[in-house]
Amino acid sequence: MIEVTRRTVLRTGLLAVASAVPAMSPAATIAPTWPSSLVQAARAQIGVTTRYDPTYVRLAYPGGDVPPDRGVCTDVVIRAYRQAFGLDLQKLLHEDMKANFAAYPKAWGMKAPDPNIDHRRVPNLAAYFTRRKTALSLTEDFASYRPGDLVTQMLPGNLTHIVIVSSKTSAEVPGRPLVIQNIGAGASEDDTLFAYQRTGHYRFSPVV
């Protein structure tokens, strides 16, 4: 009787402890990493942003954006960080530019920051990411480019460009990452990471 009583007490105690711990589903125990969230937010733009439109537009501030059906390569990055983390690169870059204007490129003859366009220019984003100490080495090693990384490129005609490294890889070359970008016909997922000169590599982790 004593042994049965002990077992009963132990079993009752374990059930009480178990009932005090909230049940967790498999999905809840494995939260997605920030790169996965960023890639998902970038990929969600495919089929929504269907045009490339570099027109200067007066934007709201903060949180300003052009209509979702259009934009440029930088808008893919800006929208992905906003959607995934509520992180506003328009505001972050503008505030840093106001405080450190001399640290940013002067290619457009700007004499003061402009929150309508500054964050939509690749060289400015590259300067911001570098100032945040997120720059990585440029290599030929596919494995160095992880999902969620940002890579700047120089397209023919000296056109600056930026992409988000995808979680998918090339069907032609095993292990070569695809990228999510707007290279002229809206948001798309393409095998062009090594098709153009790479000028910068960044891993900009949000605080989430």
From TrEMBL:
Signal sequence region: 1-23
InterPro entries assigned: DUF1287 (IPR009706), TAT_signal (IPR006311)
Pfam families: DUF1287 (PF06940)
Family matches, as PROSITE patterns: TAT
Keyword vocabulary terms for this entry: Signal
Domain of life the protein comes from: Bacteria
Protein name: DUF1287 domain-containing protein
Organism (species): Rhizobium lusitanum
